Amino acid sequence: MLAGIDGVRQSAQNQTLDLPNGLIGNLTIDLISDWNDSLWKGREGSGERDNKIPSPQSPNQTERIFFNESVASEREASMIDAPARNAGLLKMDHPHVAIVGATGAVGVEMLLCLEQRNFPLGKLKLLASARSAGKTMKFRGEDIVVEELTHDSFSDVDIALFSAGGGISLEFAPSAAAAGAVVIDNSSAFRMEADVPLVVPEINPEAAKNHPRNIIANPNCTTIISLMALAPLHQAFGLRSVIASTYQAVSGSGAQGIVELEEQMQAITTGQPFTPKVYPRQIAFNVIPQVDAFTENGYTKEELKMGNEGRKIMSLPELRVSCTCVRVPVYRSHSVSITAQFERPVDASAARAAFLNKPGVQVVDDIANKVFPVPLDTTGKDDCLVGRIRKNLVFENALDLWVVGDQVRKGAALNAVQIAEIL
Ligand code: NAP
Q: Which of 56, 114, 280, 324 is the most exposed place for a label (fewest CB within 10 A)?
Protein backbone atom coordinates (compact mmCIF):
# COMPACT_ATOMS: atom_id res chain seq x y z
CA MET A 1 0.00 0.00 0.00
CA LEU A 2 2.80 2.39 0.72
CA ALA A 3 3.90 2.10 -2.87
CA GLY A 4 0.40 3.27 -3.80
CA ILE A 5 0.84 6.49 -1.92
CA ASP A 6 4.24 7.07 -3.50
CA GLY A 7 2.53 6.59 -6.81
CA VAL A 8 0.07 9.32 -5.92
CA ARG A 9 2.81 11.77 -5.15
CA GLN A 10 4.66 10.93 -8.33
CA SER A 11 1.51 11.24 -10.34
CA ALA A 12 0.82 14.61 -8.82
CA GLN A 13 4.33 15.83 -9.59
CA ASN A 14 3.90 14.78 -13.19
CA GLN A 15 0.70 16.83 -13.30
CA THR A 16 -1.17 13.85 -14.66
CA LEU A 17 -3.94 11.93 -12.99
CA ASP A 18 -4.12 8.37 -14.21
CA LEU A 19 -7.47 6.72 -13.77
CA PRO A 20 -7.53 2.96 -13.53
CA ASN A 21 -9.62 1.22 -16.18
CA GLY A 22 -11.12 -1.03 -13.54
CA LEU A 23 -11.16 -0.69 -9.82
CA ILE A 24 -8.04 -1.81 -8.02
CA GLY A 25 -9.61 -2.51 -4.67
CA ASN A 26 -8.53 -0.13 -1.98
CA LEU A 27 -5.90 1.45 -4.18
CA THR A 28 -8.42 3.20 -6.38
CA ILE A 29 -8.42 6.49 -4.58
CA ASP A 30 -4.70 6.31 -3.93
CA LEU A 31 -4.28 7.21 -7.54
CA ILE A 32 -5.75 10.62 -7.50
CA SER A 33 -3.98 13.69 -6.30
CA ASP A 34 -1.60 15.61 -4.09
CA TRP A 35 -3.59 15.68 -0.90
CA ASN A 36 -0.64 16.58 1.27
CA ASP A 37 -0.94 20.08 -0.10
CA SER A 38 -4.68 20.13 0.33
CA LEU A 39 -6.77 22.37 2.51
CA TRP A 40 -7.51 19.54 4.90
CA LYS A 41 -4.22 19.69 6.74
CA GLY A 42 -4.70 20.67 10.35
CA ARG A 43 -8.45 19.99 10.49
CA GLU A 44 -8.05 17.59 13.36
CA GLY A 45 -11.01 15.86 14.85
CA SER A 46 -13.31 16.09 11.89
CA GLY A 47 -14.12 13.32 9.49
CA GLU A 48 -16.34 15.65 7.54
CA ARG A 49 -15.05 17.76 4.69
CA ASP A 50 -18.10 19.91 4.28
CA ASN A 51 -16.93 23.03 6.05
CA LYS A 52 -14.10 23.64 3.66
CA ILE A 53 -13.36 27.29 2.96
CA PRO A 54 -13.42 27.97 -0.77
CA SER A 55 -10.37 29.40 -2.42
CA PRO A 56 -10.57 32.84 -4.06
CA GLN A 57 -11.89 32.95 -7.58
CA SER A 58 -9.59 33.30 -10.52
CA PRO A 59 -10.26 33.45 -14.25
CA ASN A 60 -10.95 30.24 -16.08
CA GLN A 61 -7.74 29.68 -18.03
CA THR A 62 -8.20 26.37 -19.74
CA GLU A 63 -10.06 25.21 -22.81
CA ARG A 64 -13.30 23.30 -22.45
CA ILE A 65 -13.28 19.67 -23.48
CA PHE A 66 -15.83 18.69 -26.08
CA PHE A 67 -16.33 14.99 -26.57
CA ASN A 68 -18.88 15.17 -29.27
CA GLU A 69 -19.32 18.56 -30.82
CA SER A 70 -22.21 17.61 -33.07
CA VAL A 71 -24.22 16.06 -30.27
CA ALA A 72 -23.41 19.03 -28.10
CA SER A 73 -24.62 21.54 -30.71
CA GLU A 74 -27.88 19.67 -31.17
CA ARG A 75 -28.27 19.61 -27.42
CA GLU A 76 -27.75 23.34 -27.13
CA ALA A 77 -30.16 24.07 -29.97
CA SER A 78 -32.91 22.13 -28.25
CA MET A 79 -32.05 23.21 -24.74
CA ILE A 80 -35.08 23.31 -22.48
CA ASP A 81 -35.28 26.30 -20.18
CA ALA A 82 -34.80 26.26 -16.44
CA PRO A 83 -38.51 26.36 -15.46
CA ALA A 84 -39.18 23.26 -17.53
CA ARG A 85 -36.37 21.52 -15.69
CA ASN A 86 -37.71 22.68 -12.38
CA ALA A 87 -41.03 21.07 -13.14
CA GLY A 88 -39.16 17.85 -13.84
CA LEU A 89 -40.20 17.86 -17.49
CA LEU A 90 -36.74 17.28 -18.84
CA LYS A 91 -35.59 13.83 -19.77
CA MET A 92 -32.10 14.90 -20.63
CA ASP A 93 -30.61 13.75 -23.88
CA HIS A 94 -26.81 13.69 -24.03
CA PRO A 95 -26.42 16.29 -21.28
CA HIS A 96 -23.30 18.34 -20.75
CA VAL A 97 -21.99 17.18 -17.36
CA ALA A 98 -19.51 18.97 -15.10
CA ILE A 99 -17.79 17.33 -12.13
CA VAL A 100 -16.77 19.80 -9.43
CA GLY A 101 -14.03 18.20 -7.34
CA ALA A 102 -13.11 15.83 -10.17
CA THR A 103 -9.66 15.12 -8.72
CA GLY A 104 -10.97 14.05 -5.30
CA ALA A 105 -11.84 10.59 -4.01
CA VAL A 106 -15.49 10.93 -4.96
CA GLY A 107 -14.82 12.87 -8.17
CA VAL A 108 -12.56 10.13 -9.52
CA GLU A 109 -15.22 7.55 -8.70
CA MET A 110 -17.86 9.67 -10.47
CA LEU A 111 -15.74 9.57 -13.60
CA LEU A 112 -15.50 5.78 -13.30
CA CYS A 113 -19.26 5.46 -12.80
CA LEU A 114 -20.03 7.64 -15.83
CA GLU A 115 -17.68 5.51 -17.92
CA GLN A 116 -18.68 2.10 -16.60
CA ARG A 117 -22.41 2.86 -16.86
CA ASN A 118 -21.97 4.23 -20.37
CA PHE A 119 -23.71 7.43 -19.33
CA PRO A 120 -25.00 9.18 -22.47
CA LEU A 121 -22.83 12.25 -22.19
CA GLY A 122 -22.81 15.15 -24.59
CA LYS A 123 -19.75 16.82 -23.10
CA LEU A 124 -17.78 16.45 -19.90
CA LYS A 125 -16.06 19.21 -17.96
CA LEU A 126 -13.72 18.50 -15.05
CA LEU A 127 -13.38 21.20 -12.41
CA ALA A 128 -11.17 21.42 -9.34
CA SER A 129 -9.02 23.97 -7.54
CA ALA A 130 -6.26 26.07 -9.08
CA ARG A 131 -3.85 23.42 -7.76
CA SER A 132 -5.17 20.90 -10.28
CA ALA A 133 -5.88 23.20 -13.23
CA GLY A 134 -3.97 21.96 -16.28
CA LYS A 135 -3.61 18.38 -15.08
CA THR A 136 -5.23 15.72 -17.22
CA MET A 137 -7.54 12.84 -16.36
CA LYS A 138 -8.49 9.97 -18.65
CA PHE A 139 -12.09 9.36 -19.65
CA ARG A 140 -13.09 6.85 -22.32
CA GLY A 141 -9.49 6.82 -23.51
CA GLU A 142 -9.33 10.62 -23.91
CA ASP A 143 -7.18 12.99 -21.89
CA ILE A 144 -9.32 15.71 -20.34
CA VAL A 145 -7.74 18.85 -18.96
CA VAL A 146 -8.91 19.82 -15.48
CA GLU A 147 -10.12 23.41 -15.27
CA GLU A 148 -10.19 25.72 -12.31
CA LEU A 149 -13.68 26.15 -10.82
CA THR A 150 -15.07 29.67 -11.21
CA HIS A 151 -18.54 31.19 -11.08
CA ASP A 152 -18.50 31.23 -14.90
CA SER A 153 -17.81 27.51 -15.25
CA PHE A 154 -21.45 26.51 -15.85
CA SER A 155 -22.78 28.54 -18.78
CA ASP A 156 -23.43 25.50 -20.99
CA VAL A 157 -23.66 22.79 -18.34
CA ASP A 158 -26.83 20.69 -17.91
CA ILE A 159 -25.85 18.63 -14.86
CA ALA A 160 -23.24 19.69 -12.30
CA LEU A 161 -22.05 16.93 -9.97
CA PHE A 162 -20.60 18.75 -6.94
CA SER A 163 -18.12 16.93 -4.73
CA ALA A 164 -15.64 19.41 -3.33
CA GLY A 165 -16.98 19.99 0.20
CA GLY A 166 -19.79 22.05 1.66
CA GLY A 167 -18.03 25.42 1.46
CA ILE A 168 -17.51 25.04 -2.28
CA SER A 169 -21.11 23.89 -2.75
CA LEU A 170 -22.49 26.82 -0.78
CA GLU A 171 -20.49 29.29 -2.84
CA PHE A 172 -20.68 27.79 -6.34
CA ALA A 173 -23.84 25.61 -6.53
CA PRO A 174 -26.11 28.70 -6.71
CA SER A 175 -24.07 29.97 -9.68
CA ALA A 176 -24.43 26.63 -11.44
CA ALA A 177 -28.17 26.51 -10.71
CA ALA A 178 -28.66 30.10 -11.90
CA ALA A 179 -26.88 29.23 -15.15
CA GLY A 180 -29.51 26.51 -15.72
CA ALA A 181 -27.61 23.43 -14.59
CA VAL A 182 -29.20 20.90 -12.26
CA VAL A 183 -26.79 20.55 -9.35
CA ILE A 184 -26.43 17.14 -7.69
CA ASP A 185 -24.56 17.95 -4.51
CA ASN A 186 -22.58 15.45 -2.46
CA SER A 187 -22.00 17.70 0.51
CA SER A 188 -24.28 18.32 3.47
CA ALA A 189 -24.76 21.98 2.48
CA PHE A 190 -28.36 21.71 1.22
CA ARG A 191 -29.57 18.28 2.37
CA MET A 192 -32.03 19.39 5.00
CA GLU A 193 -33.49 22.37 3.11
CA ALA A 194 -37.20 21.89 2.43
CA ASP A 195 -36.98 22.89 -1.23
CA VAL A 196 -34.02 20.62 -1.99
CA PRO A 197 -34.87 16.95 -2.61
CA LEU A 198 -32.67 14.37 -0.88
CA VAL A 199 -32.59 11.30 -3.07
CA VAL A 200 -31.62 7.65 -3.06
CA PRO A 201 -32.87 6.46 -6.47
CA GLU A 202 -33.84 2.98 -5.22
CA ILE A 203 -35.95 4.53 -2.43
CA ASN A 204 -37.43 7.90 -3.45
CA PRO A 205 -36.66 8.47 -7.15
CA GLU A 206 -39.81 10.57 -7.59
CA ALA A 207 -38.34 13.25 -5.30
CA ALA A 208 -35.65 14.00 -7.88
CA LYS A 209 -38.28 15.29 -10.29
CA ASN A 210 -39.15 18.31 -8.17
CA HIS A 211 -36.11 20.51 -7.69
CA PRO A 212 -37.34 24.12 -7.61
CA ARG A 213 -33.88 25.50 -6.82
CA ASN A 214 -32.17 23.34 -9.46
CA ILE A 215 -30.37 21.60 -6.60
CA ILE A 216 -30.70 17.93 -5.61
CA ALA A 217 -28.81 16.62 -2.60
CA ASN A 218 -27.02 13.30 -2.30
CA PRO A 219 -27.45 11.91 1.23
CA ASN A 220 -24.64 11.17 3.68
CA CYS A 221 -22.73 8.01 2.78
CA THR A 222 -23.53 6.09 5.97
CA THR A 223 -27.19 7.07 5.65
CA ILE A 224 -27.38 5.76 2.08
CA ILE A 225 -25.80 2.43 3.00
CA SER A 226 -28.02 1.98 6.05
CA LEU A 227 -31.19 2.93 4.18
CA MET A 228 -30.44 0.49 1.38
CA ALA A 229 -30.97 -2.19 4.02
CA LEU A 230 -33.73 -0.48 6.01
CA ALA A 231 -36.01 0.65 3.17
CA PRO A 232 -37.05 -2.85 1.97
CA LEU A 233 -37.67 -3.84 5.60
CA HIS A 234 -39.72 -0.69 6.15
CA GLN A 235 -41.83 -1.52 3.10
CA ALA A 236 -42.54 -4.98 4.52
CA PHE A 237 -42.89 -4.35 8.25
CA GLY A 238 -43.14 -0.57 8.92
CA LEU A 239 -39.99 0.92 10.45
CA ARG A 240 -40.32 2.65 13.83
CA SER A 241 -36.86 3.02 15.33
CA VAL A 242 -33.20 2.37 14.63
CA ILE A 243 -30.19 1.95 16.88
CA ALA A 244 -26.97 1.81 14.86
CA SER A 245 -23.22 1.68 15.29
CA THR A 246 -21.02 2.40 12.29
CA TYR A 247 -17.55 1.17 11.32
CA GLN A 248 -16.38 3.87 8.91
CA ALA A 249 -13.41 3.53 6.59
CA VAL A 250 -10.65 6.14 6.51
CA SER A 251 -11.33 7.01 2.86
CA GLY A 252 -14.55 8.56 4.15
CA SER A 253 -12.27 11.40 5.22
CA GLY A 254 -11.06 11.70 1.63
CA ALA A 255 -7.58 10.90 0.54
CA GLN A 256 -6.01 12.36 3.66
CA GLY A 257 -7.54 9.61 5.77
CA ILE A 258 -5.70 6.92 3.85
CA VAL A 259 -2.43 8.84 4.01
CA GLU A 260 -2.82 9.19 7.79
CA LEU A 261 -3.49 5.47 8.30
CA GLU A 262 -0.58 4.41 6.11
CA GLU A 263 1.87 6.87 7.64
CA GLN A 264 0.92 5.78 11.16
CA MET A 265 1.24 2.08 10.30
CA GLN A 266 4.68 2.69 8.87
CA ALA A 267 5.76 4.81 11.84
CA ILE A 268 4.53 2.24 14.37
CA THR A 269 6.08 -0.75 12.64
CA THR A 270 9.44 1.03 12.31
CA GLY A 271 9.39 2.56 15.81
CA GLN A 272 9.14 6.17 14.60
CA PRO A 273 7.17 8.94 16.40
CA PHE A 274 4.09 10.48 14.73
CA THR A 275 1.43 13.07 15.43
CA PRO A 276 -2.21 12.44 14.38
CA LYS A 277 -3.35 15.16 11.95
CA VAL A 278 -6.63 14.08 10.38
CA TYR A 279 -8.07 12.19 13.36
CA PRO A 280 -8.13 13.16 17.05
CA ARG A 281 -6.35 9.92 18.09
CA GLN A 282 -4.15 7.26 16.54
CA ILE A 283 -6.16 5.41 13.88
CA ALA A 284 -3.65 2.62 13.06
CA PHE A 285 -4.36 -0.51 15.15
CA ASN A 286 -7.14 1.42 16.90
CA VAL A 287 -10.78 2.57 16.53
CA ILE A 288 -12.05 6.10 17.24
CA PRO A 289 -15.61 6.78 18.43
CA GLN A 290 -15.76 10.20 16.81
CA VAL A 291 -16.71 10.98 13.21
CA ASP A 292 -17.24 14.69 12.59
CA ALA A 293 -17.66 17.34 15.30
CA PHE A 294 -19.59 16.86 18.54
CA THR A 295 -22.87 18.74 19.02
CA GLU A 296 -24.48 20.00 22.23
CA ASN A 297 -26.44 16.79 22.90
CA GLY A 298 -23.32 14.62 22.85
CA TYR A 299 -23.94 13.15 19.41
CA THR A 300 -21.63 14.05 16.51
CA LYS A 301 -23.00 15.76 13.42
CA GLU A 302 -22.42 12.54 11.47
CA GLU A 303 -24.49 10.59 14.01
CA LEU A 304 -27.43 12.97 13.67
CA LYS A 305 -27.44 12.74 9.87
CA MET A 306 -28.79 9.18 9.78
CA GLY A 307 -31.93 10.23 11.65
CA ASN A 308 -32.48 13.62 10.04
CA GLU A 309 -31.80 12.43 6.50
CA GLY A 310 -33.51 9.06 6.98
CA ARG A 311 -36.74 10.75 8.09
CA LYS A 312 -36.68 13.01 5.01
CA ILE A 313 -35.80 10.32 2.43
CA MET A 314 -38.32 7.76 3.68
CA SER A 315 -41.00 10.36 4.54
CA LEU A 316 -41.06 9.02 8.10
CA PRO A 317 -41.21 12.08 10.36
CA GLU A 318 -41.74 9.93 13.47
CA LEU A 319 -38.74 7.65 12.89
CA ARG A 320 -36.47 7.51 15.96
CA VAL A 321 -32.76 6.96 15.40
CA SER A 322 -29.79 6.73 17.76
CA CYS A 323 -26.42 6.27 16.13
CA THR A 324 -22.78 5.94 17.24
CA CYS A 325 -20.24 6.54 14.46
CA VAL A 326 -16.81 4.95 14.76
CA ARG A 327 -13.77 5.39 12.52
CA VAL A 328 -11.93 2.11 11.91
CA PRO A 329 -8.59 1.38 10.22
CA VAL A 330 -10.21 0.05 7.04
CA TYR A 331 -9.32 1.65 3.73
CA ARG A 332 -12.68 1.62 2.06
CA SER A 333 -16.36 0.60 2.58
CA HIS A 334 -18.42 1.45 5.62
CA SER A 335 -20.17 -1.18 7.77
CA VAL A 336 -23.17 -0.57 10.01
CA SER A 337 -24.56 -2.73 12.82
CA ILE A 338 -28.29 -2.02 13.07
CA THR A 339 -31.05 -2.88 15.50
CA ALA A 340 -34.35 -1.95 13.87
CA GLN A 341 -37.80 -2.07 15.44
CA PHE A 342 -40.94 -2.40 13.34
CA GLU A 343 -44.69 -1.92 13.65
CA ARG A 344 -45.43 -5.49 12.66
CA PRO A 345 -43.95 -8.84 13.74
CA VAL A 346 -40.83 -9.88 11.88
CA ASP A 347 -38.39 -12.76 11.82
CA ALA A 348 -35.17 -13.49 9.98
CA SER A 349 -36.65 -15.47 7.12
CA ALA A 350 -39.40 -12.92 6.48
CA ALA A 351 -36.72 -10.23 6.55
CA ARG A 352 -34.58 -12.08 4.02
CA ALA A 353 -37.62 -12.44 1.77
CA ALA A 354 -38.17 -8.67 1.93
CA PHE A 355 -34.89 -8.15 0.04
CA LEU A 356 -35.85 -10.38 -2.89
CA ASN A 357 -35.66 -8.50 -6.19
CA LYS A 358 -34.74 -5.22 -4.50
CA PRO A 359 -32.20 -3.38 -6.67
CA GLY A 360 -28.88 -2.34 -5.16
CA VAL A 361 -28.98 -4.63 -2.13
CA GLN A 362 -28.17 -8.31 -1.68
CA VAL A 363 -28.45 -10.68 1.25
CA VAL A 364 -25.17 -12.45 2.06
CA ASP A 365 -26.10 -14.43 5.12
CA ASP A 366 -25.12 -18.04 5.69
CA ILE A 367 -23.57 -18.28 9.14
CA ALA A 368 -23.32 -22.08 8.99
CA ASN A 369 -20.71 -21.54 6.30
CA LYS A 370 -19.28 -18.36 7.89
CA VAL A 371 -20.73 -16.27 5.09
CA PHE A 372 -21.39 -12.63 5.94
CA PRO A 373 -20.40 -9.37 4.26
CA VAL A 374 -17.14 -7.58 5.08
CA PRO A 375 -15.82 -4.26 3.70
CA LEU A 376 -13.47 -5.99 1.23
CA ASP A 377 -16.52 -7.64 -0.37
CA THR A 378 -18.15 -4.35 -1.36
CA THR A 379 -15.13 -2.25 -2.28
CA GLY A 380 -15.54 -1.02 -5.83
CA LYS A 381 -18.97 -2.65 -6.07
CA ASP A 382 -22.37 -1.06 -6.63
CA ASP A 383 -24.49 -3.17 -4.28
CA CYS A 384 -24.79 -2.96 -0.52
CA LEU A 385 -24.64 -6.33 1.24
CA VAL A 386 -26.74 -7.37 4.23
CA GLY A 387 -26.01 -10.24 6.61
CA ARG A 388 -26.21 -11.44 10.22
CA ILE A 389 -29.98 -11.00 10.03
CA ARG A 390 -31.58 -12.22 13.25
CA LYS A 391 -34.46 -11.57 15.57
CA ASN A 392 -33.45 -9.15 18.31
CA LEU A 393 -33.64 -10.63 21.81
CA VAL A 394 -34.47 -7.36 23.63
CA PHE A 395 -37.12 -5.46 21.69
CA GLU A 396 -40.52 -6.51 20.31
CA ASN A 397 -40.80 -6.79 16.51
CA ALA A 398 -37.10 -6.06 16.13
CA LEU A 399 -34.22 -7.34 14.03
CA ASP A 400 -30.45 -7.11 14.22
CA LEU A 401 -28.52 -6.89 10.97
CA TRP A 402 -25.20 -5.92 9.49
CA VAL A 403 -24.91 -3.89 6.28
CA VAL A 404 -21.79 -3.04 4.29
CA GLY A 405 -21.39 -0.74 1.29
CA ASP A 406 -18.72 1.13 -0.62
CA GLN A 407 -19.14 4.65 0.72
CA VAL A 408 -17.18 6.28 -2.11
CA ARG A 409 -19.32 4.51 -4.69
CA LYS A 410 -22.94 3.86 -3.58
CA GLY A 411 -22.43 6.26 -0.66
CA ALA A 412 -21.48 9.10 -2.99
CA ALA A 413 -20.45 8.83 -6.65
CA LEU A 414 -22.77 6.10 -7.90
CA ASN A 415 -25.80 7.53 -6.12
CA ALA A 416 -25.14 10.92 -7.74
CA VAL A 417 -24.75 9.41 -11.20
CA GLN A 418 -27.94 7.36 -10.68
CA ILE A 419 -29.76 10.60 -9.86
CA ALA A 420 -28.38 12.14 -13.07
CA GLU A 421 -29.70 9.14 -14.98
CA ILE A 422 -33.27 9.73 -13.83
CA LEU A 423 -33.33 13.46 -14.65
P1 NAP B 1 -11.19 14.96 -1.45
O2 NAP B 1 -10.64 13.63 -1.86
O3 NAP B 1 -10.43 15.74 -0.46
O4 NAP B 1 -11.40 15.83 -2.79
C5 NAP B 1 -11.79 17.18 -2.73
C6 NAP B 1 -12.01 17.72 -4.13
O7 NAP B 1 -12.44 19.08 -4.01
C8 NAP B 1 -10.75 17.74 -4.99
O9 NAP B 1 -11.09 17.51 -6.33
C10 NAP B 1 -10.28 19.17 -4.82
O11 NAP B 1 -9.52 19.65 -5.91
C12 NAP B 1 -11.60 19.91 -4.81
N13 NAP B 1 -11.41 21.23 -4.25
C14 NAP B 1 -10.87 21.56 -3.07
N15 NAP B 1 -10.82 22.90 -2.93
C16 NAP B 1 -11.36 23.42 -4.05
C17 NAP B 1 -11.57 24.74 -4.52
N18 NAP B 1 -11.24 25.80 -3.80
N19 NAP B 1 -12.13 24.89 -5.74
C20 NAP B 1 -12.47 23.83 -6.49
N21 NAP B 1 -12.27 22.54 -6.11
C22 NAP B 1 -11.72 22.35 -4.89
O23 NAP B 1 -12.66 14.83 -0.86
P24 NAP B 1 -13.77 13.69 -1.13
O25 NAP B 1 -13.60 12.62 -0.13
O26 NAP B 1 -13.81 13.35 -2.59
O27 NAP B 1 -15.10 14.45 -0.69
C28 NAP B 1 -15.74 15.40 -1.51
C29 NAP B 1 -17.17 15.65 -1.00
O30 NAP B 1 -17.89 14.42 -1.01
C31 NAP B 1 -17.27 16.17 0.44
O32 NAP B 1 -18.37 17.03 0.51
C33 NAP B 1 -17.52 14.91 1.24
O34 NAP B 1 -18.18 15.18 2.48
C35 NAP B 1 -18.42 14.16 0.28
N36 NAP B 1 -18.43 12.71 0.47
C37 NAP B 1 -17.26 12.01 0.56
C38 NAP B 1 -17.32 10.63 0.74
C39 NAP B 1 -16.08 9.77 0.86
O40 NAP B 1 -16.22 8.59 1.15
N41 NAP B 1 -14.87 10.31 0.65
C42 NAP B 1 -18.55 9.99 0.81
C43 NAP B 1 -19.72 10.75 0.70
C44 NAP B 1 -19.64 12.11 0.52
P45 NAP B 1 -7.91 19.68 -5.84
O46 NAP B 1 -7.48 18.27 -6.15
O47 NAP B 1 -7.55 20.67 -6.90
O48 NAP B 1 -7.54 20.10 -4.46
A: 56
2-218+412-422, superfamily in CATH? NAD(P)-binding Rossmann-like Domain (3.40.50.720)
Burial of 367: CB neighbours in 10 Å, binned 0-12, 13-18, 19+: exposed
Atom of ligand 1 nearest to the CA of 256: 3
How far is the centre of ligand 1, averaged over its atoms, from the C-alpha of 340 (Å)?
Answer: 32
> Is it the case that residue 278 has pLDDT exceeding 90?
yes
3-state secondary structure of 167: helix
Q: What pLDDT digit, counting tens, does each position of 114-146 carry? A: 999 999 999 999 999 999 999 999 999 999 999
Please list the active-site residues.
Answer: 221, 334
> Ligand 1 centre and the CA of 411: distance in Å?
14
CB atoms within 10 A of CB 281: 13
Residues 214 and 196: their CA atoms lie apart, in Å, by 8
Pocket (CB within 6 angstroms of ligand 1): 33, 38-39, 48-50, 54-55, 101-107, 128-129, 131-132, 149, 163-166, 168, 186-187, 221, 251-252, 254-255, 407-408, 411-412
- Helix axes of 255-269 and 2-13: crossing angle, nearest 10 degrees: 130
Residue nearest to atom 12 of ligand 1 (CA): 101
| Domain positions in the chain | 2-218+412-422, 223-407
The CATH number of domain 223-407 is 3.40.50.300: no
